[in-house]
TrEMBL record:
Belongs to the UPF0056 (MarC) family. InterPro entries: Multi_antbiot-R_MarC. PANTHER family: UPF0056 MEMBRANE PROTEIN YHCE. It comes from Zunongwangia pacifica. The chain crosses the membrane at residues 6-29, 41-62, 74-93, 114-133, 145-162, 183-208. It is found in: Cell membrane. Its main location: membrane. This is UPF0056 membrane protein. The lineage of its organism: Bacteria, Pseudomonadati, Bacteroidota, Flavobacteriia, Flavobacteriales.
Length: 211
């Protein structure tokens, strides 16, 4: 249960579906409730498929490019930290590449569940690198199953939040969402720094052990 809670909390914070609510509301303003529900479901399914595939195949991609797991964690940690700062400064949408040009393109698409919602808004490089690192950390089959269950739980939570996005936006308002996002941003920064510091200590330990 501790592993499930840890993976869920870390992944949910990095994905941050709450920060996506204003964007989702803006992109689905003219849609019916049924269409918004369908978009929410497809987005969550896409996220689950993307994250699960990356979780199991990430290590082989790293091996193909000759990238060490510690290098990935440091790079991923930097991405996670910058995402956290974006949440703290209120520039989350811009950080995720949601400029006016991208918004206009999204409005013209028939479906927005894969892009820009699933990629890069939710299943971005930060969450992907986090899961690849977890695959290396949790070698037991039971641990991997728990991680997959946590990914599913995060995707289910994302679906419920996106489906209720218009109600949440009305209830919390822009200021409420911004305040909660700042708190989540602080947690995300802490997760990223922990990733970076532990990886740097591992690299330094390996370096000194060879001297």
């Amino acid at each position: 249960m501790d592993l499930f809670i840890y993976v869920f909390a870390a992944l949910f914070s990095v994905i941050n579906p709450l920060g996506t609510i204003p964007i989702f509301v803006g992109l689905t303003t003219e849609d019916t409730a049924k269409e918004r529900s369908k978009t929410s479901l497809l987005t969550s399914v896409n996220i689950f498929v993307i994250l699960t595939i990356c979780f199991f195949t990430g290590r082989y991609i790293l091996q193909f490019f000759g990238i060490s797991i510690e290098s990935l964690r440091i790079a991923g940690g930097l991405i996670i930290v910058t995402s956290g700062f974006a949440l703290l400064t209120g520039s989350f949408s811009k950080h995720k590449g949601m400029n006016e040009r991208v918004k206009d393109d999204a409005q013209q698409r028939e479906g927005i569940s894969l892009t820009p919602l699933a990629i890069p808004m939710l299943a971005g490089p930060g969450s992907i690198s986090l899961l690849i690192g977890m695959y290396e950390d949790y070698s037991l089959t039971s641990e991997k199953l728990i991680t997959i269950l946590a990914i599913f739980a995060v995707c289910l939570s994302t679906f419920l939040m996106l489906k209720s996005a218009h109600y949440i936006a009305r209830f919390l308002g822009a200021s409420g969402i911004n305040a909660i996002s700042r708190i989540i941003g602080f947690i995300v920064i802490a997760i990223g720094i922990e990733y970076i510091s532990s990886s740097v200590m591992t690299v330094l330990g390996i370096t000194f052990s060879h001297q």
